[in-house]
Amino acid sequence: MRRKLSKKELKKKAKSTKEIIRGIINETINLPDNAIIFDPEILSEIFTRKRLELIQYINSCKPQSILELAELTGRKKQAVFRDLKLLERNELVKLVKKGKTVIPTVQRKMAILDLQKIFSLEVPKKTKKLDALVYVNQKNVNQAIEAK
User: Are 84 and 58 in contact (CB under 8 A)?
Assistant: First the structure.
């Protein structure tokens, strides 16, 4: 169960969001054209350890079906499919149907960065070649990627 944010916390979030938007509009924050910025609370719901693992396996192993991806990850096909549908709704993966087979592909290359970096108005140079930037404030998500 989520706790309700206080008025002070909401004002602080609104102010920081406005600063980010102003920086993007004024081009003081250099982001790729199709960057994605998630709210950290939503992000933690989307990027679980298992979903990050799916994205990594899709990138590295190029599975030719959801069943193959499920076998690679040691998960049930239904659970993998459910996670892929959520990632697809958020435009992070694409499910391509070929006959009866559904092939998962990563739709965007991603960098997952600490949210504090955006407040310094600096984006690492290497991220300019990526299709999307996802900002988070949870170190455990970064550690999950680095551990793989």
Answer: no
